[in-house]
Specification:
- The complex is a heterodimer of chains A (876) and B (117).
- By secondary structure, chain A is α+β, with helices and mostly antiparallel strands.
- Chain A folds into four domains: 65 residues; 211 residues, no CATH class; 314 residues, no CATH class; 187 residues, no CATH class.
- In chain A, 53% of the residues lie in helices and 16% in strands.
- Chain A is built from 27 helices and 22 strands.
- Chain A has a six-stranded mixed barrel with strand order 3-4-9-6-8-7. Chain A has a six-stranded mixed β-barrel with strand order 14-15-20-17-19-18.
- In chain A, a hairpin with a 4-residue loop joins strand 1 and strand 2.
- In chain A, helix 6 crosses helix 16, helix 13 runs antiparallel to helix 18 and helix 19 packs antiparallel against helix 22.
- By secondary structure, chain B is an alpha+beta fold.
- Chain B is globular, with a radius of gyration of 16 Å.
- Classes of the chains: A alpha+beta (876), B alpha+beta (117).
- At the A-B interface, helix 1, helix 2 and helix 4 of A face helix 3, helix 4 and strand 4 of B.
Chain lengths: 876, 117
């Protein structure tokens, strides 16, 4: 180290006086020459000749030192900075374009990394899988499984090390100041060890204690720990009253802990006890199942084994249920589904396309500049610069440009990631964990370097091929260099259009899909409806108390000014829909015994409030009270499935098997299907019972208002409910439109982003062709003048220019459409209601692109028409 | 300076300039111009040195530690660098000289083979 410093200083010392020494050397030579009798002027000339090229010698001398190249780089850099500063408009436009696309790519990379690349936070996550019950007769692909089945799988499967189950659980927590609803979930006690997750405080559920004690153990999330205990160690051992039962906190889970996509405030144990006999009827409870494969087993092997097990187990099943299978899905694929993966890859590809288009454009611009600078280059070559040196100079310029753009790009990417957090779809797992970390910065550096090379390469290559002396003799007009540059620029424009059309087609298909989705009738009207969730006080253990509470709350709310009507449903959102065992009276075999069915409790005015049409029969009425016969309203899907080709009104069904003691329901009405799982999914069978006959602990409340902004009456409604009972927990207050927007969020996100990218791609490539045509006209002014002089009409010139532009556009279009067709087929699962080869989209975007390109050519062409032949020809 | 003389000049072989500089400096410290002159005169004006090319060579020698330099005053009474041989350079000069001798001898043998005996 010391040696090096000394070395460095010696070098500086030696070089410091180089100028002075050389001057002195020449002076002495002049002196000698004068003494030899030469005239002063001749003496100096001879001295200079004898010495040689001073600049070159100085450079050679510097190069002697090891660090010479650094010196040159510094020189290049200083020169590049000066050149870029001088060419203000070009530098600003180029840096702005590049920094934007670098930012977009960096943001996209950090999203891809967070969502797709990062391994899940479990021990050897590549061995983890979700196991699902599948039933093709029910169109059920990924269904939950009953505990008895899970135990069978666990005892029979060789490929599986262990199995655990989990599920969300509706949970309320009672504290001194009231009851609130929290996110609760339960898991089998072996699940944490299976995943390889340790609590950060306390311990996991014990696996060898008696069931009784285990029921009252609870693990809390890191966020809950911070919010309720301020991160204090006292939390372990404290008691929580959950669902009215007091439970002891045994441990705190790591920050961000979730099983697959399920996060919860509190986790309760659910025992998997081996050796139980198959319950007489189908079990009502079903669970999510996670498996850890034994090392060395692949998912395919596990799938094969599970399929065989499913066949064996089906022998124990009733005849109607012998089609069941087991699906093995790698956990990573479950957490971020293939559709989200595809969407992300598609967006990433689009961003990369936009980047390439932008880089091509900047390259094209700098190519035009390099032609204009041919004279400068020629002079530098004449002064002794080697070709390599000039190429290095040009690359230094583009690298400097790329570096500045990269730095700005990183700042913009930080903002971009924030935007993604704010506006990204909430249901895309792990999206919020995207950060500008070392890897993202690395990707920014890489993409910036790529930009630097791409932008600098074309000018550097034409410089190498051009004979610089020729340019100097031509006074720098450099017709030859111009032609080569124009060819490369034409190729760049073609490439830009090809890439742009791909992004445009993708965006077009997504926009069409969006319209298709939006045109679906959800089966209810979301506008002007306010939604909130209510939890009845924990002390309301008798159904009648809750029925009374809900009825009085509805009455009060209806009296609030601005309220048109109000209704209640148990839970409007259908999560993972489950199958239910159902008995249909007089089932002659045409109706199934199991149905994917959701069952909800609704108040009399629920359908009226949401605007869901009644197709047959009647709505619930006051008469359908607690003591009246049990009645039900069903939707069209259920009517079709349970009573095919018959009128269901007046028919009876009950949940559970034939011999269950559950009540029979008489169907009194049929309502239209409601897309409660999102517009893109087919509605499933839905049955509704009267809120007066079944009262859940918590419900969703809907208020149709007269105001376009339903939130304005939120306070009044809240007050009305509090008047009925101050202990009612109210939460999740939002316009229904907003709550349902959740289902469309991801589609909206990808559509709007891709459309944005497509517009940017179109704009940049338009600027590209505009610049090229402008440039082409500038270099052909004489030719155009000559043409006009020998009789070409203005229209001929216009046609000539525009056809030149359109030729490039159409070549790009043809290449791009092939790529787009191929890509659209690959990503067709992202589409809805349109095919990947939708002719309307392909033709539409092609026309759009051609028109825009024609317009971009038209304006410079109009100027070309007005070329004065005399002026043009005189220049020669 | 006759033109004939100019024409008879010989381009310096790659690397021999270093040797000539070392040899020149053995006589004592000198500044750049003096070294150039010494080489020219010493070779009876046969060797052509583009005087400037002296400087990269000088710096190369400094870098290798064969010569060092000091500030001094030139004949014109101006400040200039005076280069001088280091101990290492002195040893190097011997090596280079013997190398050169062998080279010259070898080339000479090929160009003018000794008469057969």
């Amino acid at each position: 180290m010391d040696d090096r410093r000394w070395f460095g200083s010696r070098r500086r010392w030696a070089l410091d006086d180089l100028d002075r020494d050389i001057r002195e050397h020449i002076e002495q030579e002049v002196q000698d020459n004068i003494e030899r009798g030469m005239a002063a002027e001749e003496a100096r000339r001879q001295a200079m000749l004898a010495f040689g090229n001073v600049t070159l010698i100085k450079e050679d001398t510097r190069r002697v030192w090891v660090w010479a190249w650094l010196d040159e780089a510094r020189q290049d850099l200083r020169y590049a900075a000066r050149t870029l500063r001088k060419s203000g408009a070009f530098a600003i436009a180029a840096a702005a374009t590049l920094s934007l696309v670098i930012a977009a790519n960096t943001t996209m990379f950090s999203v891809l990394h967070a969502v797709l690349f990062r391994p899940l936070p479990y021990r050897t996550p590549e061995q983890l899988a979700m196991l699902w019950t599948e039933d093709p007769t029910q169109n059920l692909r990924e269904g939950r499984s009953a505990l008895w089945n899970v135990e069978q799988w666990r005892s029979q499967a060789q490929s599986v090390n262990d199995l655990g189950v989990f599920d969300a659980m509706s949970t309320t927590m009672t504290e001194s100041d009231g009851t609130e609803r929290i996110n609760g979930a339960s898991m089998s006690p072996n699940l944490l060890p299976l995943l390889g997750v340790e609590p950060i405080r306390g311990r996991s559920f014990s696996t060898d204690e008696v069931d009784q004690r285990r029921q009252s153990e609870v693990l809390i999330s890191h966020a809950f720990w911070q919010a309720h205990f301020g991160g204090s160690t006292d939390a372990v051992g404290a008691t929580l009253v959950l669902n009215g039962v007091s439970s002891q906190i045994v441990g705190v889970l790591p920050a961000g802990f979730r099983i697959a996509t399920l996060a919860a405030d509190v986790w309760m144990p659910r025992t998997l006890s081996g050796g139980r006999a198959r319950p007489a009827g189908p079990e009502p409870e079903t669970w999510f199942v996670v498996a850890r494969l034994r090392p060395g087993f692949t998912f395919a092997q596990a799938q094969a084994e599970m399929t065989a097990i499913a066949v064996r187990l089906n022998d124990h099943m009733p005849a109607a249920e012998r089609k069941r299978g087991i699906t093995v899905v790698p956990l990573t694929l479950h957490v971020v589904g293939s559709e989200s993966r595809q969407a992300l890859w598609m967006l990433a590809a689009a961003v990369l396309c936009v980047f390439l288009i932008a880089a091509a454009n900047v390259a094209s611009l700098s190519l035009a500049r390099s032609v204009a600078r041919a004279r400068e280059m020629a002079v530098r070559v004449a002064l002794g610069a080697s070709a390599g040196r000039i190429v290095r100079q040009l690359l230094t310029e583009s690298m400097l440009l790329a570096t500045v753009s990269g730095l700005i790009g990183i700042l913009l990417a930080a903002a971009g990631i924030r935007l993604v957090h704010a506006f990204g779809p909430a249901n895309l797992a792990r999206l919020n964990e995207a950060t500008l970390d070392v890897r993202a910065l690395g990707s920014a550096v890489a993409i910036s370097l790529l930009a630097g090379v791409l932008v600098g390469l074309a000018p550097a290559m034409t410089t190498l091929r051009r004979d610089p002396r020729l340019s100097a003799e031509e006074g720098g007009r450099s017709v030859m260099g111009g032609a080569a540059a124009r060819r490369i620029r034409s190729a760049l424009v073609v490439a830009e259009f090809a890439l742009a059309i791909i992004v445009l087609v993708a965006a077009g298909l997504l926009v069409r899909s969006w319209w298709q989705v939006k045109s679906i009738d959800p089966g209810f009207e979301t506008d002007r409806v306010l939604m909130m969730e209510l939890s009845s006080p924990a002390t309301f253990n008798i159904a009648a108390q809750r029925i009374d509470l809900y009825q009085r709350a509805l009455e009060r709310i209806r009296a609030v000014p601005g309220v048109e009507s109000a209704g209640i449903i148990g839970d409007i959102f259908i999560g993972n829909s489950r199958e239910q065992v159902i008995t249909i009276e007089g089932n002659d075999g045409t109706a199934p015994e199991r149905l994917r069915l959701t069952r909800d409790e609704v108040s009399a005015d629920f359908f009226k409030t949401l605007g869901t049409p009644l197709l047959r029969g009647r709505f619930f009425s006051i008469a359908d009270g607690p003591d009246a016969p049990q009645v039900a309203i069903i939707n069209e899907v259920m009517a079709r499935r349970a009573w095919p080709m018959r009128d269901p009104v007046g028919k009876r069904f009950k949940l559970g098997p034939r011999d269950s003691d559950r009540p029979w329901y008489t169907v009194v009405g049929v309502v239209g299907d409601m897309h409660r799982q999102g517009l893109e999914r087919e509605p499933i069978a839905q049955a509704f019972e009267s809120l007066s006959q079944a009262s859940p602990r918590s419900v969703d409340l809907f208020i149709r208002t007269t105001s376009d902004d339903p939130l304005t009456i939120a306070a009044a409604v809240r007050a009305a409910v509090r008047q009925v009972d101050k202990d009612v927990a109210i939460y999740g207050v939002a316009p229904l439109e907003e709550r349902f927007g959740f289902y469309l969020a991801q589609r909206w996100f990808q559509t709007i982003l891709l459309t944005g990218f497509a517009i940017v791609a179109l704009l940049i490539s338009t600027v590209g062709i505009y610049g090229l045509i402008q440039y082409s006209i500038a270099t052909r002014t004489q030719e155009i003048g000559l043409r006009i002089a020998i009789g070409a009409q203005a229209g001929d010139i216009l046609r000539m220019i525009i056809s030149e532009g359109l030729r490039l556009t159409l070549i790009g279009l043809a290449v791009g459409l092939v790529g787009a067709w191929w890509l659209a087929r690959a990503g067709s699962s992202l589409l809805f209601g349109v095919t990947g080869t939708d002719p309307l989209t392909f033709i539409g975007v092609s026309l759009l692109l051609t028109l825009v390109a024609a317009a971009a050519c038209y304006f410079p062409a109009r100027r070309a028409m007005r070329v004065d032949p005399i002026v043009a020809l005189r220049v020669t | 300076m006759s033109t004939k003389r100019e024409r008879d000049r010989i381009e310096l072989l790659q690397g021999t300039l270093d040797l000539l500089i070392l040899r020149t400096l053995r006589l004592g410290p000198a500044h750049g111009h003096a070294i150039a002159k010494a080489i020219e005169h010493g070779s009876d004006r046969v060797l052509a040195v583009e005087q400037g090319s002296l400087y990269p060579a000088l710096h190369r020698l400094i870098k290798r530690g064969w010569i060092s330099f000091d500030d001094g005053t030139s004949e014109n009474n101006r400040r200039a660098k005076f280069y001088c041989l280091t101990a290492k350079g002195r040893k190097q000069l011997e090596i280079e000289t013997s190398k050169w001798d062998r080279l010259a001898h070898a080339i000479g043998r090929i160009l003018r083979p000794a008469p057969q005996e």
